[in-house]
Amino acid sequence: MGAWLNRIWCEDALQGLARIPDASVDLLIADPPYGLGKDYGNDSDKLDAGAYLEWTRQWVDAALPKLKSNGSLYIFLTWRYSPEIFVMLKQRMTMINEIIWDRRVPSMGGSTRRFSSVHDTIGFFARARDYYFDLDAVRIPYDAETKKARSRSIFVGAKWLEIGYNPKDVWSVSRLHREHRERADHPTQKPLEVVERMVKASCPPGGVVLDPFMGSGTTAVAARRCGRNYVGFELNPDYCALIDNRLAGLDKPEAA
Ligand SMILES: C[S@@+](CC[C@H](N)C(=O)[O-])C[C@H]1O[C@@H](n2cnc3c(N)ncnc32)[C@H](O)[C@@H]1O
């Protein structure tokens, strides 16, 4: 195992990516600043459209060579820049899915001049046709009621009823509200349920997950919980400390 692995480097991803050997990563999960002016304790989300897309091109070109030939990428975006960034990525990879993460935002007021936006657009891309993908690891079990409703003889013993269903491309998972037990002090923390699905489906056990923009460290926590290795970067030292705390929490008995 390289000295670069199972570490969060508190530095700019563009510099940090040079530490990682080419073709050493199974899965790249990227949740970059959205280009919407959010405050991460730095100016990383304050670029204008042209500069944001140029910066995206730079980190994409630095990160993709790190993937193994059967590796893949999930990228969290919003509708504002997903069209341009999907085109950029389609010139470099094969697009497998557009996944909608429905954040299950409650209906309260909202926009008056447009429809309220309540989803993230996630791009799922692969380097090659033989990309690693383990659907069985992420199937959703049918509940007892559904199984009962399907108890007619044509369904009995049906394999699909036993093994559960494909999670499909609309993932309805609540965002982490302030009181949520997973919640850390980061404005755009992603739920473990969403990131663990990516890890289990697209990184083999014991494999390596790279996240260039760790934030509160959700990808590292997900990787550890799923028995995968991780590596990543984060600019803000306060978030780096938060990540250390979250990872240390996994070693406490109640986290098991
Ligand atoms: C959308 S957030 C990631 C949230 C993360 N997925 C989570 O669940 O907590 C983006 C993060 O990237 C960090 N960041 C921005 N520019 C960066 C850069 N050039 N290198 C490393 N980190 C960067 C920001 O400080 C911010 O914490």
Question: Can you describe what's shown?
Answer:
Keywords: Aminotransferase, Methyltransferase, Transferase. Belongs to the N(4)/N(6)-methyltransferase family. GO terms for molecular function: methyltransferase activity; transaminase activity. This is Methyltransferase. Pfam families: N6_N4_Mtase. The protein is α/β, with parallel strands linked by helices and 256 residues long. The protein has a single domain (7-107, 115-136, 168-251), classed as Vaccinia Virus protein VP39 (Rossmann fold), CATH 3.40.50.150. The chain contains eight helices and eight strands. Strands 1-8-7-2-3-5-4-6 form an eight-stranded mixed sheet, with helices on both faces. Strand 2 (25-30), helix 2 and strand 3 (67-77) form a beta-alpha-beta unit. Helix 2 (49-63) packs parallel to helix 3 (82-90) and helix 6 (192-202) crosses helix 7 (218-225). The longest helix has 15 residues, at 49-63. The radius of gyration is 19 Å and the shape is globular. The two termini are 25 Å apart. 34% of the residues are buried. The model has no long low-confidence stretch (mean pLDDT 93). Bound molecules: S-adenosylmethionine.
